[in-house]
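Margin note from the TA: students keep mixing up input and output lines. Inputs are the sequences; the output is the structure of the whole complex. Example:
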Amino acid sequence: MTTVARVPVALGNRSYQIIVGDGLLKQAGALCGELLPGRRVMIVANPAVNCLYGTTVSTSLRKAGFQVANTEVRAGERAKSLRQAAGLYGAFLRNQMDRRSVVIALGGGVIGDLAGYAAATFLRGLPLVQIPTTLLAQVDSSVGGKVAVNLPEGKNLVGAFYQPALVVADVQTLKSLPARQMRAGLAEVVKYGMIADRELFEYVETRLDSILRAEEEPLAHLVTRSCAIKAQVVEQDEREEGMRAILNFGHTVGHALETQGGYHRLLHGEAIAIGMVVATALSMNRGLCERKDLDRLRTLLTRIGLPTKTSVDMNSLLRTVRYDKKVRNQMIYFVLTKRIGHAMLAAISDPGELRAAVRAAWSA
Ligand SMILES: NC(=O)c1ccc[n+]([C@@H]2O[C@H](COP(=O)([O-])OP(=O)(O)OC[C@H]3O[C@@H](n4cnc5c(N)ncnc54)[C@H](O)[C@@H]3O)[C@@H](O)[C@H]2O)c1
C-alpha cells in the first residue's frame, strides 16, 4: 500500500479533507466513523460501479457500525436530472434518513453531481461523502463543492455550492477504468499543470507510460497534487466570483464543442484538450507564451491519446462560444496561459482574435 496523503480544504466551518491512497475503499467505514456523528448511510452508485465496488464499501461501513442502504441510479449523463434526484429523495424517505444521515456518492462525476445535489437539498442538507472512482472525479469534480443536475435546456443549470464532509480517493479503483476515461481525466491533470504547476506538467510527460498502466504510485501523486491545486483555488474563491475561473482553462471552447456534439461525441476531457490548445494559441498570439509551449502541450496531449483539433465547422463553433455562460456584455472571458504553469483571466471583444487563434491551433 502506498502512503496515504491528506489534502486539507480550509473553508472555515465547511473545511474537510481529501484522503488519497491505494486500497482506501476498505477503510471507508473507519474514515467516515472518525468524523460523522450519524450512523445511517446511503450509498448512491450506478449499476456498474455498484457491482465493482459497492460491496467493499458497504462491508467496510457496516464493520464500522453504520447502518447501510444502497441505491442504484442509471448510468450516464442522463442520470443528472431532476427526475433522478426525486428518485433519490424517495429512497432517502423510505430509509428514514434524517439530517444526520450520510449520503455517499460512489462513482464518477455524474454520481458525485447528482447525489451531491440530492444531499444538498434533502432536508436542507445531509452530510455528503464523495468516493470518486474516475480520474476526472478524483482530480476535479469531487472537490470544491459544485453539485448540479441538468435541465433539457442545458447542463448544470440547477445546482448548489455544497461542500462534502470528506473525499476518499482510492487510486486502486482506477485500474478498472476504461482507457478512454483515464485519458479524458488526464486532460484535467494537464490543465492543472498548464495553469499552476509546471512540475506536474513535466511529471505527466516523464511518467506517462506508468500512469496509463494505472500504477498506484504515480496516480496517487497526480491526484494529490491536482487536489492540492484545486483546494488552494477554492479556498480563495469558493463561489467563483473571481480567480476560481482559472480552473476553466480550455473550457470556453471545450464547452462549445460538447454542446455541438450534443454531449455524446466527445468526452468532457477530450473537448477540454482541444479547448486548451486554442487557449494556448490565443496566449501565444498575444505574446504571453511561446510557440514551443503550444507545441509541447500538443505533443503531450497527442501522446496521452487526446484530440487536439476537430473537424467541427469553425463558424458554427464560434457562434456556440458566443452563447456560452462566459460571455457577458459582448466580451468572451478566457483563461490564458503565461508560460506553462501560470494562468491569467482575459476578455476578448474581437471575434477575429478567436478565429485567428483557432486557425493557429489547428494548423499543425
Ligand atoms: N462538480 C464539478 O465540479 C464537476 C467538474 C467536472 C465535471 N463534472 C461533471 O462530471 C461528469 C463527468 O464525470 P466522469 O467523467 O467521471 O463521468 P461518469 O461519471 O459518467 O463516469 C464515466 C463512466 O465510467 C464508469 N466508471 C466510473 N468509475 C469506474 C471504475 N472505477 N471502473 C470502471 N468504470 C467506472 C461509469 O460507470 C461511467 O460509465 C459530468 O456530468 C460533468 O458535468 C463536475
